[in-house]
Design brief:
two-stranded antiparallel sheet, 6 helices, 2 domains
Length: 217
């Protein structure tokens, strides 16, 4: 004769499995699927912005104010080799690490090469990164004002420049910014020569492209 207690135990397991399956289905329909669709939409939007920005050089003419209060643009500094990145001053982790990587990169250049290079760091959070905060960040990190240009533009300018430079970002509810750290090498004519998505290391390919640009006639 079958054990009734075992039968009831199996029935309970079956019911529990059915309940869990139903919960999983509801989760997929109401939470996971909308999140995936939104992520896809965001990625598509970023791709569209990048493609649009790559088709012209309007992004290089977007004005920004430097930590010294001067109005300029990337196009205005053509004639110099530049490494451009985007960050924000109250970034808790990745931005300081990226700055340290760029500082190490400078030490691997000859004195003559160092004098020819400008590093431009543009804020991803212009609402909070005032000129005073940019100055504080520069001083706290020991950045040479003659070789480092920190700047802030408008929110629309951030979108244009991030799209062209290939920096994906989103402003979070806690006033932080989730973003990629990208180093973009601009030649003397303003053309993009190389990109590095490794904010923690000075890649040999990027360093080689930088040295070639600095030593080109």
């Amino acid at each position: 004769m079958p054990d009734i207690s075992q039968w009831r135990s199996s029935e309970h397991v079956f019911l529990l499995a059915a309940v869990l399956a139903a919960i999983a289905a509801v989760f997929m329909l109401t939470i996971w699927t909308p999140l995936q669709l939104q992520a896809f939409a965001n990625a598509t939007e970023v791709t569209r912005i990048e493609s649009s920005a790559a088709s012209n050089d309007a992004w290089s003419r977007v004005p920004f104010v430097t930590a010294d209060g001067n109005m300029t643009s990337l196009a205005a500094s053509n004639g110099r080799v530049r490494v451009v990145t985007m960050l924000y001053t109250h970034c808790p982790g990745m931005c300081p690490l990226a700055v340290s990587t760029l500082q190490r990169m400078q030490t691997r250049l000859s004195p003559i090469e160092q004098k020819q290079l400008s590093i431009i760091a543009l804020s991803l959070d212009p609402e909070r990164d005032s000129i005073a905060r940019l100055q504080e960040f520069r001083n706290a990190r020991g950045l040479d004002a003659s070789r480092w240009v920190l700047g802030r533009t408008s929110s629309e300018g951030v979108r244009q420049m991030a799209g062209a430079l290939g920096v994906r970002y989103r402003v979070l509810g806690d006033d932080s910014v989730d973003h990629q750290s990208v180093f973009v090498l601009l030649g003397r004519s303003g053309r993009v020569l190389a990109r590095s998505y490794d904010a923690l290391n000075v890649g040999p390919a990027f360093l080689g492209a930088l040295q070639a640009a600095l030593n080109a006639d």
